[in-house]
Design goal:
Blueprint: E1 10-14, E2 20-24, H1 72-123
Antiparallel strand pairs: 1-2
Length: 124
C-alpha cells in the first residue's frame, strides 16, 4: 500500500535544496517513503479540525525501486541504515556541544598565544 497521506503520523518535509522527506513519525513504515504496511496498526485518520488547506501539495516520493513490497531485504537495508544513523547521532551531538562549550576557552588560549608571540617579537 502506498504511503497514506491521510494518516495522522505521516510527515513530509521539503528542504531548500529541493529534497523532500516522507516518513512515518511512529516508525511503522519500514519501506518509507514508498509504502505503508497493509493494515497498519498505527494508522489514524488525520482529523485536522478547523484547518483550511491552501494550494500547497505534498510532493510525490521518488519512484519506487524494483522489488519493493516483494523483497524483505529492502526493509532490512533501510532499518540497518537507520540504526547506523541513530548510533552516530549522539556522538555527533556530543562533539558539537563540546566545541560550543569550549569555544570561548579555545579563543582565550589563542589570544594568550598571540600575545606571547607579539611580546617575543618585541624583545628581539
Amino acid at each position: 500500500m502506498p504511503m497514506r497521506f491521510d494518516c495522522k503520523f505521516f510527515e513530509s518535509r521539503s528542504y531548500p535544496n529541493g529534497e523532500t522527506v516522507h516518513k512515518c513519525d511512529i516508525d511503522l513504515a519500514p519501506e518509507a517513503p514508498w509504502r505503508c504496511p497493509e493494515g497498519c496498526k498505527g494508522f489514524q485518520r488525520r482529523t485536522d479540525v478547523a484547518w483550511s488547506y491552501g494550494s500547497l501539495v505534498t510532493p510525490q516520493p521518488p519512484p519506487e525501486p524494483k522489488g519493493i513490497g516483494d523483497d524483505p531485504s529492502i526493509a532490512a537495508l533501510l532499518d540497518e541504515a537507520e540504526d547506523i544513523l541513530n548510533q552516530a547521532g549522539p556522538g555527533i551531538v556530543e562533539e558539537l556541544e563540546y566545541e560550543r562549550n569550549n569555544k570561548g576557552f579555545i579563543k582565550k588560549l589563542k589570544r594568550k598565544a598571540n600575545k606571547a608571540n607579539r611580546n617575543k617579537k618585541k624583545r628581539k
